Structures are given as C-alpha cells and as structure tokens.
Amino acid sequence: MSTHKSHKRQATVSGISSKEAIDRLKYALERKFNSHRVEDKGKYVIYHGRLNLEDKKDMHVRIHTTDTIYISGTPSISLEDFKGIATEVVRLAQECVKKLIDARPITLQRAGCILEFAENLNPDNEFERMVMVILADTSNEIILTEKMKTLGIKGPPLDEGIPDKIKRLEKKGIPVYKETEIKNIRDLRNDIVHSGNIPDKKQAVDTLKLAKEIFEKA
Questions:
Q1: Which of 13, 52, 172, 201 has the largest count of CB atoms under 10 Å?
Q2: In angstroms, what CA-CA distances link 176 with 3, 114, 152, 180?
C-alpha cells in the first residue's frame, strides 16, 4: 500500500475573503501560476483555484468565509516545491488584503481627483479625448509610484517610466493589476504627447474606464 499522502497547508489571512481581496488574489495567481478558477460546491468555499504547474502537476487553493486558506498538492509534487509555492500563495494573499488608500491616503487622493475631472470631459470632442487619455495615464503612474513608496523605494527609481516601475514592483513580488493595459495606455498617451495623434472615442472611454478600475483595485 502506498504511504504517499497529499501535501496540505492551512493559513489565516484576515480580510482575504472580501470580494476585493479575492479579485486581486485571483488575478495574482493567474499571472504567477497560470491559475484557473474551478467550480466548488463547498458550503464555506468562496474561491477555489487550480495552480497549473510544470509536468502537468497542480495544486489547489481554497478560501473560506472564515479568511482561512487551504492549500493542497498531490504527492507527485516534492515537499520542498509544495512548501515554496504554498508560502508564495500566502504571501500574495497578504499583499492582496492591503489597500493602497490605507497606506497613502493623502497622495492617492490626487489620482482619484484626476479621474473625477476626466469623467466630466466630453469624449465627442477630439481634444478632450486626448486629455482623458493623458489623465488616465497620469492616474496609473501615481498609483505605481505610491506603491513603490510603500516599499521604501526612493530616489531616481521613482522618476522612471511606467514599464520600469512595473518591473521593480514585480521584482519585489508585488502583483501589478492590469499591467499590460497600463503599458498600453502609456503607449497611447505617448502617441498623443509626442505625435499629436488623436484617440477615437472608444479608445478614450475605454482608457478612462480601465484607469478607474485600476484605481479601485489599488
């Protein structure tokens, strides 16, 4: 009879069962481990994700309404690998319960005010569309900069461009929500600022919508 048993770990992260935290963790696990949400009819389970690892191995992450995280893996995964991945999942969960507005309430207000102003611009006016995109990009950069400051990053790195700021945050293990979209918005902004290109109405409206989502998830 085989004596191999499934690997298991349990951890409690206060606040992880909130919808906002679950959404951030789901995104982080998708980026980091190619995770997919799976159906789970467990009475207290509010999130169940499967981490797709190499060699067709997988691990499961279940979050209960009690803020408890249950992590499991098959015996085919080495205990060392399981422990490392489980520790990273818990660390990501701890990051995902943090709200930037709590850490940088005054400075983050600037991004919120900028977006409120942008919402009042007229997307039917081509010049106001240009401003909408520029302001959306500005809000995104403020959020990245403030996240860097919470990590104690100072000096010249704070003046780097958006792609470099994203790289620095990811090297610190901080998942950047919608990082591809943030880079695309920067590219669109650069086309406006450096070439005078005028975004179409849909581009401007979608860009502002994305920036608002990124602000709300920060």
A1: 13
A2: 41, 20, 17, 9
pLDDT tens digits, 95-115: 999 999 899 999 899 999 999
| pLDDT tens profile 23-45 | 999 999 998 999 999 988 888 99
CA 87 distance to own-chain centroid? 18
184: pLDDT strictly greater than 50: yes
Beta bridge partners of 70: 10, 62
Angle between helices 79-96 and 19-33 (to 10 degrees): 140
- The helix/strand/coil state of 97 is coil
> CA dihedral defined by 43, 35, 29, 163, rounded to 10 degrees?
-150
Environment class of residue 30 by beta-carbon count within 10 Å: exposed (0-12), middle (13-18) or buried (19+)? Answer: middle
Query: How big is the chain by its Cα radius of gyration, in Å?
Result: 20
Which amino acid does the sequence have at 34? N
For the beta sheet containing 45-52, the strands, ordered from the edge strand earlier in sequence to the opposite edge, are 7-12, 68-73, 58-64, 45-52, 36-37
Rounded-to-integer distance, Cα 213 and Cα 61, Å: 25
Q: Residues in the chain, how many?
A: 218
176 and 104 in contact (C-beta within 8 Å)?
A: no
Listed in sequence order, the residues at least 6 apart from 3 whose beta carbon sits closer than 8 Å to its beta carbon are none
